[in-house]
Amino acid sequence: MRSVLSPPPDLPTGAKIAASVLEGLGAKAVRPTTDFWTVWDTSDHRLAAAQRRLIQKSDRLELVASDAPDDAIASRAGGEDPHHFVATWPDDALTLAVRRTVGLRALAPVLSAQVRQVPGTVVDGQGKITARVEVIRYDIQIPSPTSNRRKRGPDPQAGPRSSHLALIIRPLRGYDSAATAVVRRAEERGWRIAVDPVETALAALPVGSAEPGFADPAQPAGYAVRGITAAYLPVLAELEEGVISDHAPEFLHQYRVGLRRLRSLVVQLGSALPGDEVQRLRALLGTMARRTNHQRDLDVWLESRDEHAVLVPESLRHGLDPFFAAVASDRVAVHRTVAKALGSAAHRNEWSEVEALAQREAAGGEDHATPIADLAARRTWKAWLKAANDAANVGPATPSEHIHEVRIRCKRLRYLLDACGHLTAPDAHEGLRRDLREVQEVLGAFNDASIQEAALLERVSAGRHPTPTAVAVGALIGALAARRDNLRASLLVGLGKLASTASRSRYKRLFKRSATAPTADIGKDS
Amino acid sequence: MAVIALLSAKGGVGKTTAAVNLAALWAATGHDTLLIDLDPQGAAGHLLKIHASGSVKAKRFWSGRADAESQVRASDFDRLDVLPADDSLRRAEAVLEDIGKSRRRLADLLATLTGWSRIVIDCPPGLGLIAENAIRAADLALVPVAPSALAVRVLEPLSDLAGERSGKLRPFVSMLRGNSAFLEELRRAHPATLSATIPSAAVAESAARSRLPVVAHAPRSPLARAYRALLAESDALLTAEGTAVERRGGAP
Ligand SMILES: Nc1ncnc2c1ncn2[C@@H]1O[C@H](COP(=O)(O)OP(=O)(O)OP(=O)(O)O)[C@@H](O)[C@H]1O
Ligand SMILES: [Mg+2]
Question: What's the number of domains chain B is made of?
Answer without folding.
Answer: 1
